[in-house]
Amino acid sequence: MTQVAEPDIKRQRVATEVVPHWIGGRRVAGTSGRRGPVYNPATGELARHVDFASIEEVNEAVAAARAAFPGWRATSLSKRTDILFRIRNLVESHRHDIAAFLTAEHGKVPSDALGEVARGIENLEFACGVPNLLKGGFSEQVSGGIDVYQIRQPLGVVAGITPFNFPAMVPMWMFANAIACGNAFILKPSEKDPSASIYLAELLKEAGLPDGVFNVIQGDKVAVDRILEHPDVAALSFVGSTPIARYIYETGTRHGKRVQALGGAKNHMIVLPDADVDMAADAAVSAGYGSSGERCMAIATVVAVGAVADPLVEAIKARLPKVRVGPGSDPAAEMGPLVTKQHRDKVASYLDSAAEQGATVVADGREHPLYRDSEGFFLGASLIDDVTPEMDCYRDEIFGPVLTVTRVGSYEDALGLVNDNPYGNGTAIFTRDGGAARQYQFDVNVGMVGINVPIPVPVAYYSFGGWKGSLFGDLHMYGPEGIQFYTRAKVVTSRWPDPGSSRIDLGFPRTR
Ligand code: NAD
């Protein structure tokens, strides 16, 4: 297990009493008088506060971004690439510091935090290829002496609003491509774990990114609503829960913005009767309890088909006592606390409602000593069997270490369950039958599919996006669709006639 180093002394200053904004290349203390608490989830202590921006402070950040945009847009592709390489290298060499902030404020254990940073770095590496990614097309001689070509240009000031569960990776999903394409970016991180955003801002500045190209506004609904309404913000990327994603999409588009809003999830893992039970159980435990179930691609529900159900539930149950729950300071810990006490208690409440509604609680995480004895927001790995679609623990996105099992009789029943679900982020099928797996890939109404892979998060050169209530908008995030999102096409039709060859023609231009 990797030990996380103490944050770099030079940057210790970021872990201040009050996490500030970052506007125009410097830290800006809030003036709204409004602040939110930031906890250490492993101890339950109030660690610091974070400023909540006023409308005026959002305006200031947008003005800084707007002022920086023309110069950044005109910066050569090779210079932009050079800066992106430096950003990539700085993030890589400071990954332990970034991971330490994630552990301190989100609670994820070091191995998980370092994995988050690594997946973020993939996006920076993809964006380093921007000269190639922005290449347009050229058609010579579409008509006599006429050529047509397409270029992609940045949108201007774009914003990203991000969730608590990936305080470093999800911002990198967005800003890597956004700034590579020549936009100026405003990040509104989650108020629950905001420090990593300021640390990243310092690294971007150190890499040579001009002031104002990357800004951070801390805050809550006041800041988000101003971003949604601000006439100088051209586009918005959002990742968070489905009700807020829907609100962001509807409000942002009503204000004329381009919006991609990724929402919540309820990811099903289908296990067919022929599956390797040990492999499926290992996958269910890794994907169900990793990051304490606080991943949008976590497996929430195992769908056991036919006779595989009993051995599978037994195999998962047998693995749970070995999942080491503990704080990030414990090098052996595999599963940390939940983000807040309120969230932990809500997650735990599903164990009661499930029992009341007729399910079988196989493992109750409230029996873990850290739930009882620690002030931290811990809950042990929990397993609920015999879950049916009308139960609260099936219908809601629990977003915690509570895995449910639904038993069905056939592949068709399993497929129906997944396709009837209002979410469509990720899904997995476990089987040895290639034909069944291929049929599932064809049939299922979900955006990301794993075949014997429980968390099919696409690599950075594909794009990430769910279907149904898991994504509002047309384009997926990062990868090639991210480049498309952060640019708009301009098509040029050109002619360089010989002097004296022009004539008047009032007809509609024809190529033939
Ligand atoms: P959230 O929706 O509560 O918050 C997300 C962001 O929206 C935060 O920055 C928050 O400050 C802001 N926000 C919250 N309420 C708001 C309101 N009323 N008006 C305007 N802005 C508001 O989500 P969360 O709890 O931070 O994150 C967990 C959720 O995110 C889960 O539902 C999870 O599935 C989802 N998620 C989805 C993906 C994906 O790629 N689809 C990835 C990560 C997380």
How would you describe the overall organization of this protein?
The chain has 512 residues and is an alpha/beta fold. The chain folds into 2 domains: 18-263 and 470-491, Aldehyde Dehydrogenase, Chain A, domain 1, CATH 3.40.605; 267-451, Aldehyde Dehydrogenase, Chain A, domain 2. Helices cover 38% and strands 22% of the residues. The chain has 17 helices and 23 strands. The chain has helices spanning 55-74, 77-93, 95-105, 110-127, 130-133, 169-180, 195-206, 221-229, 242-254, 277-289, 309-319, 341-356, 369-373, 392-395, 411-420, 434-443, 479-485, and strands at residues 18-19, 21-23, 26-28, 35-40, 45-51, 138-143, 146-154, 157-161, 184-188, 214-216, 233-239, 258-262, 267-271, 299-305, 360-363, 382-385, 402-408, 423-424, 426-430, 448-451, 467-468, 471-472, 487-495. Helix 2 (77-93) crosses helix 7 and helix 3 crosses helix 4. It is globular and about 85 Å long. The chain binds nicotinamide-adenine-dinucleotide. Nicotinamide-adenine-dinucleotide (NAD) is lined by residues 161-166, 188, 190-191, 220-221, 224, 239-241, 244, 262-265, 296, 397, 399, 425, 466, 470. Nicotinamide-adenine-dinucleotide binds at residues 161-166, 188, 190-191, 220-221, 224, 239-241, 244, 262-265, 296, 397, 399, 425, 466, 470.
State the end-to-end distance.
68 Å
Number of helices in the DSSP assignment: 17
> What is the C-level CATH assignment of the largest domain?
Alpha Beta
The total domain count is 2
Lateral arrangement of strands in the main beta sheet: 15-16-17-14-13-19-20
Tell me the total number of β-strands.
23
Provide the CATH architecture of the largest domain.
3-Layer(aba) Sandwich
Strand portion, in percent? 15-25%
